[in-house]
Write a structure and sequence with these properties.
Layout (H helix, E strand, L loop, with lengths): L4 H15 L4 H38 L15 H11 L10 H10 L1 H6 L18 H9 L2 H11 L3 H32 L4 H6 L11 H14 L11 H4 L9 H26 L15 H20 L7 H32 L3
């Protein structure tokens, strides 16, 4: 497979920095900065696309028109919403804990972008191919729980506090089966390195031997994203808007943007671990760039999440918690046991 444009550009940029007599360490730092800017641009562009896509998907499922006024097929509606949020007044209620209230809206976007550092967007298209890449993703993604708690507590509002506490309880509970669902993939590859996991799926994607793990990951990922039917932290019928109640303008938009960045990240990990990553499904399709395959698979996962959101109704909080502790965790442990037995059986048979 030929090098993609992005790989060629990165190599040229690295050589250009070196030609300016920067030290090797400084070149690496500059490349990381460029990669970080690329991730931020990637998240912003995806948010523009996903807001429009979600509206169209929901309107199709519910037999409505969706955006159809601004631009062809309503394509400019998201841009209009962005301008509206940029020009709205930033209202900070008098009784809130101002520092906690402000920092929460900024902190929420940090882990949402940091997780992309270990995601392989294509062949040799990864910012940091860490030996503990999968562990890094799980660790950084869990930090967003703190921002949700800060937003709920700092708002000094009973609905926001309930939403924040629900978010913490939900995310902590569903992180356990989510991590357990990934253990089977690690057992099959013997590595936490993202590139190794993708390479191990050359002959067969892990969604086949780890279908139960994929199923658990999809459900737990939906809960981690706070998306319907698990959107209890912002349940408008009960909590007005939950932990977002007191936020307005761009502070609210940052939570919204982080939600879509996390949606892309969770879908990217599902693609990397279960759907073969950037690899084509058949060898004769290798002429298509690897990053195109990766994006197609990621958007396939995103459409699954959207389909679930606009099909199933919100469930009760006690049912949500019981389902994690009584169903998903035992099922994920059973999947690990069966995977281990299967690996030993294959080794014993010499396969």
């Amino acid at each position: 497979m030929e090098k993609s444009f992005f790989v060629v550009f990165a190599e040229w940029l690295r050589q250009w920095f070196a030609s300016l007599n920067f030290s090797p360490a400084a070149v690496e730092v500059l490349m990381d900065v460029v990669g970080g800017l690329g991730v931020i641009i990637f998240c912003l562009l995806n948010a523009l696309v996903l807001v429009y896509l979600e509206r169209k998907v929901s309107s199709f499922i519910q037999q409505r028109y969706g955006p159809n006024r601004l631009g062809p097929k309503g394509l400019f509606q998201t841009l209009a919403d962005t301008l509206k949020l940029l020009t709205k007044e930033d209202i900070i209620p008098e009784a809130v804990d101002k520092w906690v209230f402000r920092i929460a809206s900024l902190l929420i976007f940090v882990p949402a972008t940091m997780v992309f550092a270990v995601i392989p967007f294509g062949d040799k298209m990864i910012i940091a191919d860490l030996n503990i890449g999968l562990f890094y993703f799980v660790s950084v993604a869990s930090v967003s729980t703190i921002a949700f708690l800060m937003a709920g507590w700092g708002s000094n509002n009973k609905y926001s506090l309930l939403g924040g506490m629900r978010s913490v309880a939900q995310m902590v509970s569903y992180e356990i089966p989510l991590v357990f669902s990934l253990v089977g993939v690690v057992m099959l590859t013997g590595s936490l390195k993202m590139s190794d996991i993708v390479a191990a799926q050359k002959n067969m994607w892990f969604i086949v031997p780890q279908f139960i793990g994929f199923f658990i990951y999809f459900i737990a990922g939906t809960a981690e994203l706070n998306r319907a039917p698990f959107d209890l932290p912002e349940g408008e019928q009960e909590l007005v808007a939950g932990l977002y109640t007191e936020y307005s303008g761009m502070r609210w938009a940052l939570f919204f943007l982080a939600e879509y960045a996390n949606l892309v990240a969770v879908s990217s990990i599902a693609t990397t671990l279960f759907l073969g990553g950037w690899q084509a499904p058949f060898d004769f399709l290798n002429f298509i760039p690897s990053y195109v395959w990766f994006i197609l698979k990621v958007y396939f996962m995103i459409l699954l999440f959207m389909w679930t959101r606009w099909t199933l109704p919100r469930i009760r909080i006690d049912h949500l918690m019981s389902f994690s502790w009584k169903v998903l965790i035992p099922l994920s442990l059973a999947n690990i046991l069966v995977t281990g037995v299967g690996i030993k059986l294959f080794q014993w048979m010499g396969w």
